[in-house]
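Quick one, T. Sequence first:
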Amino acid sequence: MKLLNGVRERDIDLLLLEEFTCSNEFRQWFLAQTVGTEFDLNKFHRAYHSVYSMNGESDLILKFSNSDIDPCWFLIENKVDALFQPEQARRYTERKDEYINTRVCARYYTVIIAPSKYLDNHAEEVQHFNYQVDYERLRDWFINSSLGQRGQYKAEILSLALKDGVYSPIFNPVAAQNWKFCHELMQEIAPEICLPPLASNYTAGGWKELTKKNTLLGELYIRTLAEIT
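Structure tokens:
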């Protein structure tokens, strides 16, 4: 019997949120893995979960400051196995620039946390983030931390995510047939949307790119098609 019947992104989000909020030991380790020890971020203010802005959502935001009270924020994207949304990684950079330009904070860093295999498989998107922290390092920190049974519990959750959560697309013939039908229908009733044809390795899930951005109309069709595939 498993500790959890599948590990979801929110499970890891809340695991991290608790540790960032309660453990200075963990916060110092995180800083060492990202900005290093040269930055004097000696005051932690707060961690936030699922923060929305004009161009998207941040899974976690951390607020620090230094002795001069210069605010420094960390914008964190956590991935267990979900694919990146179109332009999702780039929007993190845009959000960072927006916060700095509006003087919400003096410094701002983007971080992606995910299994190492996921980071390797999505190198193009991952390169947009300032720092990467893999699940394996997180798990090892909890195993070797002074948290005792709580640390072992969290290490086990991360081990489950590493074992069961790595994304492996599986061909789905029913979903493939649905997409083929939708593609043919769209060519007939709305060719301006330019819905892409069926790929040879089509699987259920993932984001379908439009070659022509027809904004609301295109998004409406895509969301409708996603629901039936």
